[in-house]
Design brief:
The chain is of the alpha+beta class. Helix content is 32%, strand content 17%. The protein contains 13 helices and 17 strands. Helix 1 packs parallel to helix 11, helix 2 runs parallel beside helix 11 and helix 2 runs parallel beside helix 13. Catalyzes the folate-dependent formation of 5-methyl-uridine at position 54 (M-5-U54) in all tRNAs.
Length: 446
């Protein structure tokens, strides 16, 4: 008789894990505490809810590591990627989705699956037996976090993810802003005009930096520390690192021409991206913030074109807890001290929707294979999946372990190819070709 797989957490990782295991023939119960137990960032009880950006980042599977991860997940009939494709929004070379219909569809697909049931309850302990995957993400509840901490004997490692503001499109002044993807990237006109751009001259930029530095910020609770992940820094923290940091980061002015004043090159540019299919909402790209609400509206309305901005959601901040996975997990994502328990998603020390869902995909397949008695080979390190799981379960330095996005720096070198920027295109293509072959071979065993 098939044994039941229990999955705690119905975010990206838990949803994908449940889908993969059920598709392999295993009965699954998803334990989700929302909406009975709320979190700071979630707004609904939907499975697969997106709480930060609505982007899955680059969809280029030949020259980008996250795009390669997209490809591998699609090849494995991944729930998250299939649903993202169904609710895709124009975003240049990126994959952005209409967040609410996306989560609604993920929820509907999981609930309709004959082998999946959903139990709305908070799990506050680590079970002593059975088959379990914990995919509770950055907002793991306090009680469960304490149970994990007690079992692992390690202090919880925490940093803070900041959420970018979303505003109404109708409140943007299009006499100052314009639509253009950087370097006109994209195969269609819709893709080439996927981003809304707000230009700043030098004086406007300097005044904006001054306002960021002096704005009221959210205070941390006693005992908390602000160890930020570099890929999700609040804009005010970037400004504190140097007055030019933002201008060489999310506000870089390159690859853009202002049609309102083509002869004048902007000193800095703020970009916004569509946040829903209707085009009524835009999020400010790279503008995660921990400013207090009053300060946010005041400072963000200094941006040309956003002087009268009306906000659908202001930015916020939340803690992200993750395991020291190189120490605690084996290469099957099992907790070494309790091997009937696997961890998946962001709590394992990966960063981003795609990476979280990818680790859910692997955990679901590995757990299902174990239940069904299928002897799977080790996930190939040459694949994007394998490079990432290898890093978090042993490839990273445990003493300095921090959350990691997938990137080609995690891949084993390809012999005979030169390094450096000049050889990058050929090198990346070689990585992706090799990865696709390795991943398809691994899938064939399950």
């Amino acid at each position: 008789m098939t044994q039941t797989l229990h999955i705690v957490g119905g975010g990206m990782a838990g949803s994908e894990a449940a889908w993969q295991a059920a598709e392999m023939g295993v009965d699954v119960v998803i334990h989700e505490m929302r909406p009975k137990v709320e979190t700071f960032a979630h707004k609904t009880g939907n499975l697969g809810e997106m709480v930060c950006s609505n982007s899955f980042r680059s969809d280029d599977d030949e020259q980008n590591a996250v795009g390669l991860l997209h490809w591998e997940m699609r090849t494995a009939n991944g729930l998250i990627m299939t649903t993202a494709d169904e609710h895709r929004l124009p975003a240049g070379g990126a994959l952005a989705v209409d967040r609410d219909p996306f989560a609604e569809t993920v929820t509907a697909k999981l609930k309709a699956h004959p082998r999946i049931s959903v139990s709305y309850e908070e799990i506050t302990y680590l079970p002593q037996d059975g088959h379990w995957i914990f995919a509770t993400g950055p907002l793991t509840s306090t009680n469960l976090g304490a149970a994990i901490q007690a079992e692992t004997g390690a202090e919880a490692l925490a940093f803070f993810d900041a959420i970018a503001p979303i505003l109404y499109a109708e409140s943007i002044d299009m006499s100052k802003a314009w639509m253009q993807s950087r370097y006109d990237k994209g195969e269609t006109e819709e893709e080439r005009t996927a981003y809304l751009n707000c230009p700043m001259d030098k004086d406007q930029y300097e005044a904006f930096i001054d306002a960021l530095l002096t704005a009221d910020k959210t205070e941390f609770h006693e005992g908390e520390t602000a160890g930020y992940f570099d890929g999700c820094l609040p804009i005010e923290v970037m400004a504190e690192r140097g007055r030019e940091t933002l201008r060489f980061g999310p506000m870089k002015p390159v690859g853009l021409t202002n049609p309102h004043s083509p002869e004048n090159k902007a000193y800095a540019v703020v970009q916004l991206r569509r946040d829903n299919a209707l085009g009524t909402l835009f999020n400010i790209v790279g503008f995660q913030t921990k400013m207090k609400y009053g300060a946010q509206t005041e400072v963000l309305r200094m941006i040309p074109g956003l002087e009268n901005a009306s906000f659908a959601r202001l930015g916020g901040i939340h803690r992200n807890t993750f395991l020291n996975s190189p120490t605690l997990l084996d290469n099957q994502m099992r907790l070494k001290s309790k091997p009937h328990i696997r961890f998946a998603g962001q709590i394992t020390g990966v960063e981003g929707y795609v990476e979280s869902a990818a680790m859910g995909l692997l955990a679901g397949r590995l757990a299902a294979a174990e239940i069904l008695g299928i002897d799977l080979p080790t996930v190939p390190q040459d694949s994007a999946m394998g490079a990432l799981i290898h890093h978090i379960t042993g490839g990273a330095e445990a003493k300095t372990f921090q959350p990691m996005n997938v990137n080609f720096g995690l891949f084993q070198p390809v012999e005979g190819l030169k390094g450096g920027r000049r050889g990058r295109k050929d090198r990346y293509k070689a990585y992706t070709d090799r990865a696709k072959a390795a991943w398809q071979d691994w899938l064939s065993h399950s």
